[in-house]
Amino acid sequence: MTEEPKARIERILSEPSEFKFGDYIGRGFEIFQKDMGSFIGFAVIFLILVSVIGMIPFVGSVANQLVVSPALTVGMYLFANKLARGERPDFATFFKGFDFTVQLALAAVVIGLIIGVTLIPFGYLIYKSGWVEWYMEVGQNPGTPLPDFPDFPPVWSFLLLLPAMFLSIAYAWTYLFIAFFRLEFWDAMEASRRLLTKHWLMYFLFTFVVGLIMVAGILLLCVGILATLPAAYCMIYAAFADVTKLNEEPSEGAGIEQHLIE
Questions:
Q1: Contact call for residues 64 and 56 (beta carbons, < 8 A)
Q2: What are the boundaries of each domain within the chain?
Q3: Largest CB tally within 10 Å, which of 22, 160, 173, 234?
């Protein structure tokens, strides 16, 4: 008998787990350093592809959001996984994320819609406050003196952003569950939400630190991002692999190795 991915997820959710914040930063750098050249080379390709496709009128940004960026992101996770398992992946592994294009695109659409709905109340307050009209007036009359600033929305209105913030963190591992557990998009979203809800605050702080590392790369004449971008994805992979026990040998003959990407 083999342990199905959904059964393993349920078992992981039922067991106590610890989020080892600092370990994942260090482990991510360790994985990155195993093949820095390939990671940096792919980061160059990643940024060029996203930039070029983004310049295509109308469809470029949509293609990036739904297809290109998710697939290339997953490619970095897959490459990191092979290195973590002691394998020597070839460069083509970075593009294996396109094998999951449909599920990744569906996840991107549904997550975007759900988070978008939670932002409607805050967006309505911004609209009522006059900031949208102010921005449009400035855009239509460049070079003219700025019109008077409208009043800021009340401070309490920023609490309306909390649902979107919560869901953005809760769904952060959706792509990883699609790639490594071969779940369909909704099951992957639910697995991510249920698991990260247990570690929400710690994962929020973790992503904040990872974000600062990426910002530091941008500040280094923008060249540093070629290293900090893949290193950041390696850190996220390290956290996911540990919390989900991705590469641990299953007990009592159970296993999901056949469900993982070779």
A1: no
A2: 5-251
A3: 234
